[in-house]
Amino acid sequence: MEAAVARSEERLWGHPKGLYFLAMTEAWERFSFYGMRTLLVLYMVQELLLPGRIENVAGMDGYRRVIEAIFGELSTQAFASQTFGLYAGFVYFTPLFGGLLADRWLGAKRVVMIGIALMTLGHFAMAFDWSFLLALLLLVLGSGCLKGNIAAQVGHLYEKHEETLRSKGYAIFSTGINVGATIGPLICGLLAQVYGWHIGFGAAGLFMLIAAIVYFAGLKYFAEDRAVAPEGEILPPLTTNEWKMIGLVVLVLLITMCQSFAYEQLWNVGMLWVNERVDLTFGGFTVPTPWLASEDSLASVIALPLLLAIWAWQGRRGGEPGDLTKIATGALIMATSSLFLALGSLSAPDGKVSILFPLVTFFLSGIAFMYQWPTALALVSRRAPKKINALMMAGAYLTLFVVGVGTGYIARFYEPMGDTAFWFLQAGISATGAVLVLLFGGTIRRRMDALEAPG
Predict the structure, then answer these.
(1) What is the mean pLDDT of the chain?
(2) Contact, 365 vs 264, CB < 8 A?
(3) Which CATH number among 1.20.950.20, 1.20.1270.60, 3.40.50.300, 1.20.1250.20 corresponds to the domain 2-224+239-452?
(4) Domains of the chain: which residue ranges?
(5) I need a surface site. Which of 79, 122, 159, 275 has the fewest CB within 10 A?
């Protein structure tokens, strides 16, 4: 264990070297994920679900019968949005089992390797109509193995007392996410527009191979897996205080879901709204719809150094915002982001909307993300009991399962409500998160601090 700790403490620019390999792995994995995700609902609505194509998808008849038995009869848009929502949700549900597999048996490293292999196969399977549902299944299982465990590995690089450095480490890790999420939609979107959907999906598979290479190259810099019970040994049960801490962490994660509902809707109905309502033509060139999604991630990358500088300046004066304050700020910014789509709809009720409205929306959503998600991951990593740390990190992603499925359900109201009312609804949902922090945030923080106090 001493050798493992020494490797994890090798530093570059103040952080363990392993952080940068994990961030680069996540960057290429997110390239694949977001490149494919920004195409998905458009691909279904514009091509895959149309007569003459839908019949080619293995298992689609049975799948649609099951979905409509649960959610009722659905239009093409509603069925595509619900399918997207289920996919977007389940990629964050399966990490719960991936975290359990890592904590109890295989360790995070082995499970991440399995996840990379499954996701690579899934992305390549997206390149064919017949294997569409199989591709989604492989991607869901692969994400379950990878997501929570690679995020937990970031936290394992830091000691308990390095709370501020850990938060900044997760911000750097999230920048890797956003670099990949910026480039992925640009390249995959352009390839899909010029050469066809399947070429765009195939490119995502190629970059999962790069993610595998980067991860294997950085293995020696990662900390040893934690909390894996030796053979024949049972881990001690959680204490009463640990259970109380788990409850408080879960409460915070539930509050963050308000912002996540509005944020995730941008990749579902948001892509359809941009494609249908926004004037994307410039000098004879049509801007691919997924390029708008890239702006969100680009804004997150641009915002990171500025936010770190602001927080450092506030910290030197004893006033850096706490985790919950940052989460509330993100919720308010995301509410403003959704409001710009509502204003865009109001500006041209019967015509094309200026591209300026979605440009502002996706820029603000990227900043909102940086306030909320890295902060939430750092809070879970720091506060969750070590015995189930990877499992709790997976629990953070579990909230996005609920959000994904819920977003798909809410998307069915887009057509009957109209776009203006729909985006006002999203703004209100996100603002609710800020209100909840204002009401209960101080009490939650004090209780967490009391549970961690010595004695």
Answers:
(1) 85
(2) no
(3) 1.20.1250.20
(4) 2-224+239-452
(5) 159
